[in-house]
Amino acid sequence: MQTATPMQRKATRPRADALRNRERIVTAAREMFVEHGPDVPLDEIARRAGVGNATVYRNFPDRDALVREVVCSVMDRTALAAEQALAEHGDAFAALERFVHASADERISALCPMISSTFDEHHPDLEAARHRVEQLVEMVMARAKAAGQLRADVGVGDLMIVVAQLSRPPAGAACLSVDRFVHRHLQLFLDGLRVPARSDLPGTAVTLEDLRRA
User: Fold this and answer.
1) How far apart are CA 27 and CA 33, in angstroms?
2) Longest alpha-carbon distance in the chain
């Protein structure tokens, strides 16, 4: 089985304690961006991570660097979920289901709309992380189609749009208050992807290129 090549953003590996601190900062930032948005004070992130402000700035010279690392980290974890799904499931559609539910748990849809305008979307780190995720999603879907389990008129863009929409809270709802509904609604969507299709979809399958042009 072919998998996407993991990206490497750091030329040298930091000491174990420094790496742990960096991971704690990224985890705390991810949680607080989801809960409060991207403008949460950095000292609050440092407090939740259990580190000093100086440690945050030593790892991330500005807010953009931290936000970018959070997004890359979430995409890396999403890509890993796709790799694990491909490796652990003999059933192709079960692999697709595993990936979709794991992607929702990463809250990537809650993060990206809030922070997409705060930094350069074409930064090499972001491009590499995005490419890896896209490549793996294509592999998961191609496998399910080849097995005759996934309807042929669905594109990668269709899947990514719906996962983002269904795992994002509706207007006026607290971000974390609707978590208990996400997997139920995602499963309803996934059931609609199975062969045989119950209806003809209007329009054409949405590709990744369509998403980039949108």
Assistant:
1) 10
2) 58
Classify 15 as helix, strand or coil.
coil
The Cα–Cα gap between 181 and 130 comes to 27
Judged on CB neighbours under 10 Å (0-12, 13-18, 19+), 11 is: exposed
CA distances in angstroms from 200 to 152, 194, 204, listed in the order given? 11, 13, 10
Q: For residue 103, what are the domain limits?
A: 86-213
> How many C-beta atoms lie closer than 10 Å to residue 4's C-beta?
17
Q: Assess contact for 155 and 206: CB atoms under 8 A.
A: yes
Task: Tell me the C-alpha distance between 25 and 7, whole Å.
Answer: 20
Question: pTM here?
Answer: 0.77
Q: Give a yes or no: residue 69 inside a domain.
A: no
pLDDT of residue 199: 87
H helices of the chain, in order, are 16-36, 42-49, 53-59, 63-88, 92-105, 108-115, 124-146, 156-166, 179-193, 208-213
How many folded domains does the chain comprise?
A: 1
Please give the DSSP secondary-structure letter assigned to residue 150. Answer: B
Cα separations in angstroms, 94 against 86, 141, 161 = 9, 11, 20
Please report whether residue 206 resides in a domain: yes
Q: Which residues of the chain have pLDDT under 50?
A: 11, 171-173, 175-176
